[in-house]
Amino acid sequence: MLLAFLIDQIQERACRVFQLARAHCKSRLYLWERLRALFLTLYIPNREALMSAWADPSRIKSVLTSPDTS
């Protein structure tokens, strides 16, 4: 749990895209719930795509795709 907290703190201080995503959300709970929803509904090819979708929700469809269920 401490390691997860440390990583969260490092992201808040060092990752500009994470900071943009955090600024867009009113609370941390809402931010993490949105992240969980993205993981459950979309295919996320890499961390950069995830953070970009997080920072600008209007780009979610162009950055992330639905999983291939064929």
What does it look like?
With 70 residues, the protein is mainly alpha-helical. 70% of the residues lie in helices and 0% in strands. Helix 1 (2-14) packs across helix 2 (16-24) and helix 2 packs parallel to helix 4. The mean pLDDT is 79.
How would you summarize what this structure contains?
By secondary structure, the protein is mostly helical.
Q: What does the secondary structure layout of this molecule look like, with pairings?
A:
Blueprint lengths: L1 H13 L1 H9 L3 H14 L5 H9 L4 H4 L7
Helix pairs in contact: 1-2, 2-4
Keywords summarizing the entry:
70 residues, mainly alpha, 70% helix, globular
Secondary-structure element order, N to C: HHHHH
Q: Can you count the beta strands?
A: 0
Give the class from helix and strand content and strand pairing: mainly alpha
Shape: globular
Low-confidence stretches: none
Q: First CA to last CA: what distance?
A: 37 Å
**Main sheet summary:** none
Approximate strand percentage = under 5%
Helical run tally: 5
Average pLDDT: 79
What proportion of the residues is helical, as a percent range? Answer: over 70%
Radius of gyration: 13 Å
